[in-house]
Design a protein that fits this description.
Blueprint: H1 3-20, H2 27-31, H3 45-53, H4 67-86, H5 96-106, H6 110-138, H7 146-167, H8 173-186, H9 193-201, H10 208-240, H11 255-280, H12 303-313, H13 318-331, H14 333-336, H15 348-368, H16 375-378
Helix pairs in contact: 4-6, 4-11, 5-6, 6-7, 6-11, 7-10, 8-9, 12-13, 12-15, 13-15
């Protein structure tokens, strides 16, 4: 059989598959943000895909809208590398630490997978914050996109929960005592703080039961929450669009290839930064976890953990209570700013709240850079 005959055979198979497959199957990739426009289920599969990709975006959509795609891309990197790590990781106090050492030293590119996962957890929070800043700057948190904005805030909280639940898993001294410190600080929150701290710590101190609950939360519970929130977020974006007031859908460029190319460029740059950080700034191992020996110093590793630890170190509970309160205030923005100007200079409340939130994040980040032992740990 010649190459030409083989190509004709493949084309016939693809044509048959396209005509025999219901185009409604495309609702699955659309659910997870891989298609922009609606699905014409009366069309053949290929035509329905092309029609959805050709859907025009509003004229205001440009490079500034690509950070949402970068956040989504990093979420998928975290899921992929997390699955790969789970093939070798053993969630027990005896085997957790050596299983990761084995992964790094014996498995080809195991070290790269681990450190890409570590740095992706930091970058995904950073890109999510940049994406939220773009939404506040353009005023697209207002009606009819209130629920879209709320889903975005909940996604940020979920990503922070991912980082904190995964921090204990290496089971070294730094992870152990930072988690101990975090649970102590969590218990200080009124009403729910003590309940959540007991729920995750289980015992009087961080133990194997704590590790099991952190692992189950990290690899079973939170991935489902993330996928649910992402799908809802994308469905709301498809319903209400990303246009500013005055924009009309259909006046701008098609989603494919214009905006998809932007997303691809941003994803490739993000991947390059991610691999560079993983190769040159790997997450080091501390000594194995020892519940009876407080380490001489306790560095917080990773951008989100630096912020969380630094927030707890700030005096008078400024960080401990200030960041959650500001996040709640930002989530409620659409309720107090239902109408108004699109120009950010004419929305002082929204811009002021977000500026204060960013300022407190930066102060917490600086406070978290110190390697000293937290007082509540050092006193144990």
């Amino acid at each position: 059989m010649t190459e030409s005959d083989q190509n004709k055979g493949r084309s016939r198979i693809l044509k048959w598959l396209e005509e025999a497959t219901d185009a409604r199957i495309l609702s699955i990739p659309r659910l997870f943000g891989l298609l922009y426009g609606p699905i014409e289920d009366r069309l053949p599969l290929g035509e329905a895909w092309r029609a959805s990709m050709r859907r025009r975006l509003p004229a205001s959509v440009g490079w500034k809208h690509a950070f949402g795609g970068a956040t989504y891309f990093l979420c998928m990197i975290l899921v992929l590398t997390g699955v790969m790590l789970s093939f070798y990781y053993r969630p027990s106090t005896v085997e957790a630490y050596p299983s990761l050492q084995y992964l790094e030293s014996e498995i080809t590119f195991g070290w790269l997978v681990r450190h890409v996962h570590f740095w992706a957890a930091s970058l995904v929070v950073l890109t999510a914050l940049v994406h939220l800043f773009r939404v506040v700057l353009t005023g697209t948190y207002r009606a009819p996109r209130e629920t879209t904005w709320l889903m975005g805030i909940m996604l940020l909280i979920t990503l922070l929960a991912f980082v904190t639940s995964g921090y204990l898993l290496p089971w070294d001294q730094w992870a152990y005592w930072t988690t101990t410190y975090g649970l102590d600080e969590l218990a200080k929150y009124p009403v729910v703080g003590g309940l959540l701290s007991r729920l995750f710590s289980v015992d009087e101190f961080v133990s194997g039961a704590t590790l099991s609950r952190f692992y189950a939360t990290h690899v079973i519970l939170l991935p489902w929450v993330l996928l649910l929130l992402l799908s809802l977020h994308f469905q709301l974006i498809r319903k209400h669009g990303v246009a500013l007031e005055g924009d009309v859908s259909g006046e701008g460029e098609p989603f494919f290839p214009h905006h998809m190319l932007r997303q691809l460029v941003v994803a490739l740059i993000t991947l390059a930064v991610l691999i560079t950080l993983a190769a040159f700034f790997p997450r080091p191992f501390g000594p194995p976890a020892d519940p009876f020996t407080v380490p001489g110093e306790l560095p917080a590793l990773g951008f989100p953990v630096l912020i969380l630890v630094g927030a707890a170190r700030l005096p008078l509970g400024i960080g401990l209570y200030g960041l959650p309160l500001l996040l709640i205030a930002l989530a409620a923005l659409p309720l107090v700013a239902r109408t108004g100007e699109s120009a950010f200079t004419r929305r002082p409340v929204a811009m002021g709240l977000f500026a204060l939130f960013l300022l407190l994040l930066m102060v917490s980040l600086i406070a978290g850079l110190g390697p000293g032992v937290p007082p509540s740990v050092g006193g144990n």
